[in-house]
Amino acid sequence: IKTFALWFIVLFLGLRIIGRPLRQMTEAAEKMDFDNLESVKFKVKTSGRNEFKILEQAFNTMVGNLLASKKNREQAEQAIRESEKKYRDMFDNAIEGIFQITPDARLISANKSFVRIFGYESPATLISEETVIAEQCFSFLENQENFRRMIQERGYVSGIEKQFRRKDGSLFWGTESVRAVYDSNDLLLYYEGTIM
């Protein structure tokens, strides 16, 4: 019975000494969420410097590092949003008409000035009437072979003057510049350019 009592006391103290800190760390880990890292702290209720204090310090250092990483990510995401807005505003508010068109002459995107220049109400309306726009707007479609040769030689064509036709049929003179955009395998993705 003495041996049993002694084992019981050792087991009870062992569970208390080992079990409580492990349970506390498990609870802290379960509470850990990337959105509430500020509230996660692991505190071992033991005295002195032992393995659990070392574990406590390591856990709290890890949480601190995750918190710093989270803040850095949030700052980077904010900088990206601001940069995207800046360049979206530049694209939307440019004086020149800016466009992107596929090699098979489908309009991908156009800015507000391009839409206005050609007499359309919105980019969506313009893109939905893409075959008409492609035929009348893009001078490089009139002479594909010459255009492709110039793009291969220089990477772009610039300053092509020609007449363009608006939605209402009226003509105007403009200057068109176009460059080819390739993927990492040098496959042509689309053309982008400007009309002034």
Key terms:
alpha+beta, 6 helices, single chain, five-stranded antiparallel beta sheet, about 20% strand, about 200 residues
Work out the helicity level: 40-55%
> Which regions have little confidence, pLDDT < 50, spanning 5+ residues?
none
Q: What does the average pLDDT come to?
A: 79
Rg calc: 33 Å
Query: What is the string of SSEs from the N terminus onward?
Result: HHEEHHHHEEE
**Major sheet size, sense and barrel closure:** 5 strands, antiparallel
β-strand amount: 15-25%
Number of strands: 5
Ends apart, CA distance between termini: 100 Å
Give the arrangement of secondary structure elements:
Elements: H1 2-31, H2 51-93, E1 97-101, E2 107-110, H3 112-117, H4 123-128, H5 130-137, H6 144-154, E3 156-165, E4 171-182, E5 188-195
Antiparallel strand pairs: 1-2, 1-5, 3-4, 4-5
Report on this model:
The chain has 196 residues and is of the alpha+beta class. Helices cover 53% and strands 20% of the residues. It is built from six helices and five strands. The chain has helices at residues 2-31, 51-93, 112-117, 123-128, 130-137, 144-154, and strands spanning 97-101, 107-110, 156-165, 171-182, 188-195. It has a five-stranded antiparallel beta sheet with strand order 2-1-5-4-3. The longest helix has 43 residues, at 51-93.
